[in-house]
Amino acid sequence: MTGAASDQSVLLDLKAVSQTFHSKRGALPAVRDVSLSVGRGEVLCLVGESGCGKTTTARMAAGLAKPVAGSVEFEGADIWQLGKRERVAYRKAVQFIHQDPYASLNPIRTVYATLAAPLRKHGLAGSRKDAWEQAAALLARVEMTPAANFLNKYPHQLSGGQRQRVAVARALALGPRLIVADEATSMLDVSIRVGVLRMLSKLRQELDVGFVFITHDLAIARHFGTGGRIAVMYLGRVVEHGRTEDVIGDPQHPYTKALLSAVPDLAPGPRRDPGLRGVDIPDLAALPSGCTFHPRCPLYVPGTCDAVEPELLEAAGREVACHVVAGQADAAPADDTREKTGGGV
Amino acid sequence: MPVLSVRDLRIGYRSGGRLVEAVRGVDFDLYPNEALALVGESGSGKSTLGLGLLRLLPRTGQITGGEVRYRAPGGDQVEATDYDVLSLEGTRLRRFRWSEAAMVFQGAMNAFNPVLRIGEQFADTMRAHAPEGRLGREDIRERAGDCLRSVRLEPGQVLGSYPHELSGGMRQRALIALAMVLEPRVLILDEPTTALDLLTQRAIVDMLQELRAERGFAMIFISHDLALASELADRVATMYAGRIIESGTADDLFREPRHPYTAGLIGAVPTVHGGALEPVSIPGAPPDLARLPAGCSFASRCSYAVDECRTTDPGLLMVTDRPAGETSHEAACLRWEAVRMPAMALQDEEAGK
């Protein structure tokens, strides 16, 4: 069972969504046929390299971009078919946190003004005093206390970590049920990054908020996604999807394996050469045939991998899109398909 | 003998009519064929230091003191070299850059001229910086091709391309090739893989290790990424608020850090392999360089700090019995003997309760 716990608790459901951009070089299929869901209070990490479609997927999940195919449902309703009132409710329920708090916070607004704006716009604060008290409570939620020290400050007077906390506080102002965070900690210095992550984890538990958490950093995904799920994306598709512990601890897809073995790590561990056949990631405008990973894949089987695009299938308790892994699953137990196909053992 | 010896280097930036020191008295030696990592967070002075070594500071920056001594042994027809880089001017400075020491920056897009083909940029660089300056077209093609192949690029494809026609990873490798083309003895790399994807980063890091072994240059690797530094470097120096606060072999520094900031940084990094200790962030934020506190600049964030730390800046202290040199371990902390990794310190605390 790799989907969200049960239908009742599903918050967000991406059903076979695709997104295509158009450039001078032609159509860029940024996301192709991605189906993922997030439950209440659950975390789903989207990981992958640049151009894998994780940010585009996140933008569709947050209703910031409309898929060209497939649908996005929030609490059972297609978000692009909502009436006016439901649309406002959806906008309050789903919040997006950007990578760069410097860019996302208005530099001429104080912290108070930033936090009070959504409260007042949605009629959640009656008076200035009320707005002030709610803003202070939001700052306490993101561990910026005493709030009075921060409410009158401007973004440039805050550290990077504090700015990102304010961005989180603003996202919390409308009582969201789902937060979509795009590389929310990647611009922060190492020494403060885990503090912000821990704060986000605490909010998830205390407020029962679901998270779609986008990161290129597998260690961050392992840490923040503990108890949740990870979807590994490559060139617009999900190639592996399962419980965080399974995907990080026992990766199945050769791309996930390559990524994990490429992570520089302070913890001493056996490092295996991923054995990739190519260094450079292919161009979205000219996707390889069959499995798009085949030109780099160490398990490449000519005639199969370059001919047919693999489906995302159940394997080893998660979903994997790989012909070789699927073959292994059928012929289990198998140690190394390459050698078996090569010389009849 | 070190190829580069930096002594009491000070670099400031003019800001609002005053000079704020971003590098506040840095000493280190770089030995031939050694990889030294300078690690630190934003504002620690690591990039300023790198730029200062090659005298490539922006207009507002200024070297205010110290010495950067460059040494090269003599050969059959070459005299031994020994000079202070800070005293070089004009042609001699230009020759030092690139043919003795070259730098690779983070954003390869900005390092290349966007309207010139890569091949022309190789030719320009070689003509402008080569000691003899008389290089034939064939020479240039051959040497450029050689360097490009060593970073796994196809010269026929790359030399005729404009920078924007290459992917980020290819551009960054082309830039490393360009930095190596005059066979410098020192290569300074400032976050060379930060903007790149994991698999590309891994390929470049592995390539750099091979190239260093093959070509024998010394390398200064500037990075915020401790794990990457631990893999790539023989020696590591941690920077904080414009100073080196700890330096030692990569093993010493990452297994037995003796400065609370280094230990804190290591403890703050989540890992993917092995049983993860819970990462712990460092409280507070780095000090404002324009208003530095008295004593140790880390004291306000430090759980080990005692009163003396707020009045005395200890400078680097020897923390091993090994002699000064390539294997010494130094830390600028009065309480270095007490320093432990944060997660272990927490465990001890809990066990004690």
TrEMBL record, chain A:
<dbReference type="GO" id="GO:0016887">
    <property type="term" value="F:ATP hydrolysis activity"/>
</dbReference>
<comment type="similarity">
    <text>Belongs to the ABC transporter superfamily.</text>
</comment>
<keyword id="KW-0547">Nucleotide-binding</keyword>
<protein>
    <submittedName>
        <fullName>ABC transporter ATP-binding protein</fullName>
    </submittedName>
</protein>
<dbReference type="InterPro" id="IPR013563">
    <property type="entry name" value="Oligopep_ABC_C"/>
</dbReference>
<dbReference type="InterPro" id="IPR050319">
    <property type="entry name" value="ABC_transp_ATP-bind"/>
</dbReference>
<dbReference type="Pfam" id="PF00005">
    <property type="entry name" value="ABC_tran"/>
</dbReference>
<dbReference type="InterPro" id="IPR017871">
    <property type="entry name" value="ABC_transporter-like_CS"/>
</dbReference>
<dbReference type="GO" id="GO:0015833">
    <property type="term" value="P:peptide transport"/>
</dbReference>
<dbReference type="InterPro" id="IPR027417">
    <property type="entry name" value="P-loop_NTPase"/>
</dbReference>
<dbReference type="Pfam" id="PF08352">
    <property type="entry name" value="oligo_HPY"/>
</dbReference>
<keyword id="KW-0067">ATP-binding</keyword>
<feature type="domain" description="ABC transporter">
    <location>
        <begin position="12"/>
        <end position="260"/>
    </location>
</feature>
<dbReference type="InterPro" id="IPR003439">
    <property type="entry name" value="ABC_transporter-like_ATP-bd"/>
</dbReference>
<keyword id="KW-0813">Transport</keyword>
<dbReference type="GO" id="GO:0055085">
    <property type="term" value="P:transmembrane transport"/>
</dbReference>
<dbReference type="InterPro" id="IPR003593">
    <property type="entry name" value="AAA+_ATPase"/>
</dbReference>
<dbReference type="GO" id="GO:0005524">
    <property type="term" value="F:ATP binding"/>
</dbReference>
From TrEMBL, chain B:
<keyword id="KW-0547">Nucleotide-binding</keyword>
<dbReference type="InterPro" id="IPR050388">
    <property type="entry name" value="ABC_Ni/Peptide_Import"/>
</dbReference>
<dbReference type="GO" id="GO:0016887">
    <property type="term" value="F:ATP hydrolysis activity"/>
</dbReference>
<dbReference type="InterPro" id="IPR003593">
    <property type="entry name" value="AAA+_ATPase"/>
</dbReference>
<dbReference type="GO" id="GO:0015833">
    <property type="term" value="P:peptide transport"/>
</dbReference>
<keyword id="KW-0997">Cell inner membrane</keyword>
<dbReference type="GO" id="GO:0005886">
    <property type="term" value="C:plasma membrane"/>
</dbReference>
<dbReference type="InterPro" id="IPR013563">
    <property type="entry name" value="Oligopep_ABC_C"/>
</dbReference>
<comment type="similarity">
    <text>Belongs to the ABC transporter superfamily.</text>
</comment>
<keyword id="KW-0813">Transport</keyword>
<dbReference type="InterPro" id="IPR017871">
    <property type="entry name" value="ABC_transporter-like_CS"/>
</dbReference>
<dbReference type="Pfam" id="PF08352">
    <property type="entry name" value="oligo_HPY"/>
</dbReference>
<keyword id="KW-0472">Membrane</keyword>
<dbReference type="GO" id="GO:0005524">
    <property type="term" value="F:ATP binding"/>
</dbReference>
<dbReference type="Pfam" id="PF00005">
    <property type="entry name" value="ABC_tran"/>
</dbReference>
<keyword id="KW-1003">Cell membrane</keyword>
<dbReference type="InterPro" id="IPR003439">
    <property type="entry name" value="ABC_transporter-like_ATP-bd"/>
</dbReference>
<feature type="domain" description="ABC transporter">
    <location>
        <begin position="6"/>
        <end position="266"/>
    </location>
</feature>
<dbReference type="InterPro" id="IPR027417">
    <property type="entry name" value="P-loop_NTPase"/>
</dbReference>
<keyword id="KW-0067">ATP-binding</keyword>
<keyword id="KW-1278">Translocase</keyword>
<protein>
    <submittedName>
        <fullName>ABC transporter ATP-binding protein</fullName>
    </submittedName>
</protein>
